[in-house]
Amino acid sequence: xxxxxxxxxxxxxxxxxxxxxxxxxxxxxxxxxxxxxxxxxxxxxxxxxxxxxxxxxxxxxxxxxxxxxxxxxxxxxxxxxxxxxxxxxxxxxxxxxxxxxxxxxxxxxxxxxxxxxxxxxxxxxxxxxxxxxxxxxxxxx
Length: 141
Description:
mainly alpha
């Protein structure tokens, strides 16, 4: 467990740096970059070492990073369909992350998939919200 936490420490430091960023759009970008790095770390931990503890820590960070990115964009109070630049960037990056999550899920044993399913659901929800906002659709309650 300690090794998993130490391995994830640099990535968590990046999430802390993202939280400290005063510009909300830049904060979102930093959080998305951190999510990609955390996922890469978790993917490597699974394929190279089959270390599920490290994978779970990395996936939790992915989820926290995606939440921070989405919350930061929401806090801008901009309308995504009228100012789509950062919202579209987030939508594209979450779509790519979903593809990578699906690829890893296919490589995992059925017993190991529970952790990745939770993260996939969270990322999918954010992706759909971003897409609806960009396309001008009404939010589903």
